Amino acid sequence: MNKLNGILIIRTSLNIMGDIISSYFMELRDRIKYFKESDNFWIGLLRDFLFVLVVVAVFSSISYIAMGRFSPMVAVESGSMIPHIQIGDIIFVESADRTTITTYDQGKESGYSTFNEYGDVILYKPRGRDGVTPIIHRAMYFVEEGQQMWPGGPAAPFAGYITKGDNPKTNSAYDQQGSISPHIPVKPEWVIGVARLERVPLLGCVSLASRGIFTCFN
Q1: What confidence tens digit (pLDDT) does each residue in 170-196 have?
Q2: Nearest-5° angle of CA 71, CA 76, CA 80?
Q3: pTM for the full model?
Q4: What is the residue extent of each domain of the chain?
């Protein structure tokens, strides 16, 4: 008899729990329906905000899987890569640790090109410093420590890339010959990533203007 009573008690408890869970999910379903269909201004604003968060999370996840970076887009601030990359272009950058870099010299030998010229365009931290605007220029060739950085030039203090903008008017010399990276090649660990896909014209002007940079309108 005690055993039978125990079974009845368990069944009754399970039925009560089932009713509670069912009631909870029905209420939750009604609240979700109200949230989705409500005309209330604040609920609508919250709904839009959550939608944006979901879109950003999905985009960031896809970007990380594809490019190795949660934020793979950069807006081009200067004209140093004209005519192949323009001011205000959005460029997609693949993380440096997810790919290999083909220099201009290597590309010229193999026929490999990006952005209408041989070799890869890289995004790097000038002199390896954080907190400064990265440089997006083409990797021309790689030098070893002690090797001349260019004909008649000084020896490289360490191994790295010799880089240069594509603009023949403003960037006729290598970065290492001017003030961008004077006499210092770009160490591989200073490279943030490699420019991939196609440029998106003008879209970067919005990002630049929001940061007080109006080079798009000069």
Answers
A1: 999 999 999 999 999 999 999 999 999
A2: 140
A3: 0.73
A4: 1-37, 91-199
